[in-house]
Amino acid sequence: MAKHCVVKRKGRIEKYDEKKVYGSVYAACFVVRLSKKACENVAKSVAGRITKWVKAESKKKICVNTSDIFRKTTTELKRHDKDAAFMYETHRDIS
């Protein structure tokens, strides 16, 4: 079992990957037309905080659920840009 594992929506388990959080946050920022530098800064900050949170949660339980990561990421993103957070939060509804 991976040190920091994630349970996906369909029950598959995989290793936590900070790059996925970074990429999805960057994309949400890009969609709301933040500058490239702003997208990078926000994505780096949010992904870093989520990684720290995943590591802390991994000490309490074997795996973290992607729904929990999704909610935590949305909360962290709202601190930076509410429009980007809205896009991130609703992307599942339109994809």
Kindly summarize this structure in a few lines.
The protein has one domain (5-94). Helix content is 68%, strand content 9%. The chain has helices at residues 18-31, 36-60, 66-78, 82-94; strands at 5-7, 13-15, 63-65.
Number of helices: 4
Low-confidence blocks of residues: none
Q: What Rg do the Cα atoms give?
A: 13 Å
Task: Please give the domain count.
Answer: 1
Strand order of the largest sheet: 2-1-3
Helix content: 55-70%
What does this structure look like?
The N and C termini lie far apart (30 Å). This protein has one domain (5-94). The protein is elongated. The chain has 95 residues and is mainly alpha-helical. The model has no long low-confidence stretch (mean pLDDT 92). It contains four helices and three strands, in the order E-E-H-H-E-H-H. Helix 1 (18-31) packs antiparallel against helix 2 and helix 1 (18-31) crosses helix 4 (82-94). 26% of the residues are buried. Strand 1 (5-7) and strand 2 (13-15) form a beta hairpin. Strands 2-1-3 form a three-stranded mixed β-sheet. Helix content is 68%, strand content 9%. It has helices at 18-31, 36-60, 66-78, 82-94, and strands at residues 5-7, 13-15, 63-65.
Jot down its keywords.
three-stranded mixed sheet, elongated, mainly alpha, single chain, 4 helices, 3 strands, 95 residues
Please render the helix and strand layout as text:
Elements: E1 5-7, E2 13-15, H1 18-31, H2 36-60, E3 63-65, H3 66-78, H4 82-94
Parallel strand pairs: 1-3
Antiparallel strand pairs: 1-2
Helix pairs in contact: 1-2, 1-4, 2-3, 3-4
